[in-house]
Specification:
This protein has 4 helices and no strands. The protein has 213 residues and is mostly helical. Helix 1 runs antiparallel to helix 4. It is elongated.
Length: 213
């Protein structure tokens, strides 16, 4: 009997430690993303101002079209990189949801109706709700970036082959850059919220370990 109890205690300890480590990893990822978003926001703000200056200069003189093309190509490359990051975030949030499911199954298998068990079930619900919302946000962000990339590529192609609608094309492209800035601001707020959620989950994990061991 003692052997079985020791074995169960060991399994619980390993599971709890793995959950704690996963939450710590998620927090580190979100903190790093906050840093990336802040740097990107500063860069994008500077680039959209430069693009506006280049647009005014081009439309007033019909010169230096290549400079605008270079700026548009640079922006498209950055959007491609952002799409790749967004895809990674969807994968990460999917893993977080899967981790919640494993924790929920583990807690339900060990459920004995104690006060601690009931607290575990409530925590599982909160974590699952938060992570599912984060996944929905990540999928939405990925789709928005993908749509913006397609629009930017079409506008660049049109600008290269036409001189008649340049003002309209450039205004639309500038609009995609401004939309990207607004999206980055939203993502920054979401990342800060996720860090707060990660802190709460780590506190819950520590509390759960103390309650069980």
């Amino acid at each position: 009997m003692k052997t079985i109890k020791h074995l169960l205690a060991g399994i619980l300890l390993v599971s709890s430690t793995m959950a704690f480590a996963q939450n710590a990893k998620e927090m580190a990822q979100n903190k790093n993303q906050i840093k990336v978003d802040k740097n990107q926001l500063t860069r994008d703000t500077q680039e959209v101002e430069l693009f506006k200056e280049q647009t005014i200069a081009y439309l007033s003189s019909n010169k230096n079209k290549q400079a605008l093309i270079a700026s548009m190509e640079r922006e498209i490359k950055q959007t491609e990189a952002k799409l790749a990051r967004a895809t990674v975030e969807v994968v990460q949030s999917t893993k977080e949801v899967a981790t919640d499911r494993r924790e929920k199954r583990r807690n339900r298998r060990q459920y004995e109706g104690t006060a601690d068990d009931k607290k575990d079930i409530i925590r599982d619900r909160h974590n699952k709700r938060d992570d599912q919302r984060d996944k929905r946000d990540d999928v939405r962000d990925e789709n928005e970036v993908e749509r913006r990339l397609i629009v930017q590529q079409e506008l660049l192609s049109a600008f290269k082959s036409s001189n008649t609608d340049d003002a309209v094309i450039l205004e639309k492209f500038s609009g995609t850059m401004l939309a990207d800035i607004e999206e980055t601001k939203e993502e920054l707020g979401e990342d800060k919220k996720e860090v707060r959620e990660d802190r709460r989950e780590r506190r819950d994990d520590r509390r759960e370990r103390r309650e069980k061991f």
